[in-house]
Design a protein that fits this description.
Layout (H helix, E strand, L loop, with lengths): L10 E3 L24 E2 L13 E3 L2 H15 L3 E7 L10 E6 L29 E9 L2 E10 L9 H4 L10 H13 L3 H12 L10 H33 L4 E6 L5 E7 L1 H10 L2 E10 L4 E9 L5 E8 L5 H14 L7 E4 L3 H10 L4 E4 L1 H5 L2 H9 L3 H12 L4 H15 L5 H8 L6 H4 L10 H16 L4 H13 L3 H12 L9 H7 L4 H14 L2 E6 L2 E6 L7 E6 L4 E4 L3 H5 L4 H9 L21 H6 L5 H19 L3 H19 L5 H12 L2
Parallel strand pairs: 2-3, 10-13, 13-14
Antiparallel strand pairs: 1-4, 3-7, 4-5, 5-6, 6-7, 8-9, 9-12, 10-11, 11-12, 15-16, 16-17, 17-18
Helix pairs in contact: 3-5, 5-16, 7-8, 11-12, 19-21, 23-24
Family: Belongs to the FHY3/FAR1 family.
Main location: nucleus
Protein name: Protein FAR1-RELATED SEQUENCE
Length: about 675
């Protein structure tokens, strides 16, 4: 125990950096006279601290000074104390200072640790409040013995002071609501907006910020994540027992905790077998409640609708994690890699794809790139932003690599973007996103704006499904198997509607009998445009150009004997649909049917063989209707080729129809078909 006779005062600094920069001595104020003091709790008129002001406790003094600071536009912190509880006279004096008091401490650089370049708000402000403990007639109280109210910096306005850390608080009720929001899967921005509406405050006027919410969620994840991971693995094992075709893989870290997990469903693996030629791997989302990167593999089916292939949750976005995810996905799909894969701009993922899928063409989703343009270029270009964006899209859609690179150079010069790092980065990665470099690869139309919106809407199903991590796999399954009435009705209406032929050409009616309405509409557009083109036979093929043009055009190569045709525009390779140039050459060459190889199986009404579909135990009523429609279309097309075939078909179908009408009609069949007819 310290001796009172030692003549020594124990001084403790709450922040050592203040010791060097803040001078608080006895000459800065005078001691008060006992006759002039009064307890501030006895009146409501005390709004400004004054020498001699009295408080029952030092905490009460701190709260008073804090409220005063808030009204004035600054915040305070505890600076130093003199004395110590339980030692000598105990705690005898306290200092409270402006939040900008002191100077930034010099940090020791450590090359092994990354340094955060954060600007300090401290500027050596000398404003402070000093209180001293006084014992009067046996009663202990605290009196203001020093007060300086001069600041060397601007004070904040009332609408700005709330952003100071000292005044940002999240109440228990708000914490509970935030955690509830997190479990529903909405973003932090959406949480903030909902709470602003609920509390009837303007945006930015909540007593906490997005950063505070993220910190709260992070603290929640640390306490709850381990139990959730155990439940998640248990859920996956239960699913595997119920359905042996359900597949999942996972890894554990050095502490035997869940690190990564990926899964796919039987129906997803079956869809991938037919439509896994082009895949989007979207890794731009996170499970909000647990701050885990979420990867979703999706594609497009023969009706142009998104289909789900698989899901992965990762602990981090690293080369190791992405490589593991791609290996797991290939394992689910029996080693079959896609022809093409579209992703976000992530260098670790790019490297992982090159390693794990060396034969797959990797490209960047243009819609994910364009979504970043406002933050990249709006401030830089100002009023020229929309003009620049239109020029970007023009370059993006060009067919020639040479034209693209020349146009890009002109665009950079016109808008003065020579030193812009985003422009430089886009050009360096041009072979991964610009269409002139991608047209010889198949992407199933997923580079278009329409498909990007459909895929994003599809992915939102899974994000909305978030509650507890352990239930996420099951909820994704519900979302995958969810029968969207509007989408199903659209598919059936496509199949049952009368196709409107626009050209009257035999080639058009033949394609209409084989392709899905979605694919046929794309082909029909090219057939209509083909009439506006002229073809000229050359020594090495055909030159095809618009009838108003005197120069340029596309080169088309056609070998009629082998049924092979190709065009320099590469549209068939890119979309699986013949281009107007090739169709013009076929028409000029008296070809009345599109060669079978140019009506890809993945765009036909039934993308698997009839025998395989009939053997499949998972085929539902809708799929069998689609199969029958495809067979009938083929029957009509083949029967029309000769009188003998037509007579045979009419005779056999009459017999078959008589047998069918003798069969009883089940309620299931009536239930599935009648709603469609009612909506036609």
């Amino acid at each position: 125990m310290m001796s009172e006779d030692a003549g020594q005062m124990l001084v403790i600094y709450d922040d050592p950096s203040d010791q060097r920069s803040l001078s608080l001595d006895e000459t800065s104020s005078t001691e008060e006279s006992p006759d002039e003091t009064r307890l501030s709790l006895e009146t409501t008129n005390d709004v400004v601290p004054y020498i001699g002001q009295r408080f029952a406790t030092h905490d009460a003094a701190y709260e008073f000074y804090s409220e005063y600071a808030k009204r004035c536009g600054f915040s305070i912190r505890r600076h130093r104390t003199e004395g110590k509880d339980g030692v000598g006279k105990g705690l005898t004096r306290r200092y409270f200072v402006c939040h900008r008091a002191g100077n930034t401490p010099v940090k020791t650089l450590n090359d092994s640790k990354p340094q955060r370049n954060r600007k300090s708000s401290r500027c050596g402000c000398q404003a402070y409040l000093r209180i001293s403990k006084v014992t009067d007639l046996g009663a202990v109280e605290w009196r203001v013995t020093g007060f300086v109210n001069h600041h060397n910096h601007e004070l904040l306005e009332p609408n700005q002071v709330w952003f100071l850390p000292a005044y940002r608080t999240i109440s228990d009720a708000d914490k509970n609501q935030i955690l509830m929001f997190a479990k529903t899967g909405i973003s932090v921005q959406q949480m903030m907006r909902l709470m602003e509406l609920e509390k009837c405050v303007e945006p930015g006027y909540l007593p906490f910020t997005e950063k505070d919410v993220r910190n709260l969620l992070q603290s929640f994840r640390k306490s709850d994540q381990e139990d959730e991971s155990i439940d998640l693995l248990r859920m996956c094992r239960n699913n595997k027992e119920k359905d042996p075709n359900f597949k999942f893989e996972y890894t554990l870290d050095s502490n035997n905790r869940l690190d990564n997990i990926a899964w796919s469903y039987a129906s997803s693996i079956q869809s991938y077998d037919s439509y896994g030629d082009a895949v989007v791997f979207d890794t731009t989302h996170r499970l909000t409640a647990f701050d885990m990167p979420l990867g979703i593999w999706v594609g497009v089916n023969n009706y142009g609708m998104p289909c789900f292939f698989g899901c992965v949750l990762l602990r981090e976005e690293s080369l190791r994690s992405f490589s593991w995810a791609l290996k797991a996905f290939l394992g689910f799909m029996n080693g079959k890699a896609p022809q093409t894969i579209l992703t976000d701009q992530n260098m670790c993922l790019k490297e992982a794809i090159a390693i794990e899928m060396p034969t797959t063409k990797h490209a960047l989703c243009i819609w994910m790139i364009v979504a970043k343009f406002p933050s990249w270029f709006n401030a830089v270009l100002g009023e020229c932003y929309n003009e620049w964006k239109a020029e970007f899209y023009r370059l993006y859609n060009l067919e020639s690599i040479e034209d693209f690179e020349l146009g890009w150079r002109d665009m950079v010069n016109s808008f003065g973007l020579h030193t812009n790092r985003h422009i430089a980065n886009l050009f360096a990665l041009r072979s991964l996103w610009a269409l002139p470099y991608l047209r010889s690869h198949f992407f199933a139309g997923m580079t278009t704006t329409g498909h990007s919106k459909a895929i994003n809407s599809f992915i939102q199903r899974f994000l909305r499904a978030q509650t507890r991590l352990a239930h996420f796999v099951e909820q994704v399954a519900v979302a995958v198997d969810f029968k969207d009435p509007a989408a199903e009705q659209q598919t059936m209406q496509q199949n049952l509607q009368n196709i409107c032929l626009k050209t009257g050409a035999p080639m058009e009616s033949h394609a209409a009998s084989i392709l899905t309405p979605f694919a046929f509409s794309m082909l029909q557009e090219q057939l209509v445009l083909a009439a506006h083109y002229a073809s000229f036979q050359m020594d090495d093929g055909f030159l095809v150009r618009h009838h108003t043009k005197l120069e340029g055009g596309q080169k088309v190569y056609w070998v009629p004997q082998e049924g092979i045709i190709s065009c320099s525009c590469h549209q068939f390779e890119f979309s699986g649909i013949l281009c107007r140039h090739a169709l013009r050459v076929l028409s000029t060459g008296n070809c009345f049917q599109i060669p079978d190889r140019y009506l890809p199986l993945r765009w036909r009404r039934i993308s698997t063989s009839p025998a395989k579909l009939l053997q499949s135990s998972s085929s539902d009523h809708t799929e069998r209707i689609q199969l029958l429609q495809s067979m009938v279309s083929t029957l009509v097309a083949e029967s029309a080729k000769s009188k003998e075939r037509l007579n045979m078909a009419t005779e056999q179908v009459s017999v078959l129809l008589s047998r069918i009408t003798e069969q009883p009609v089940t309620s299931q069949g009536v239930h599935d078909i009648s709603p469609i007819h009612r909506n036609l």
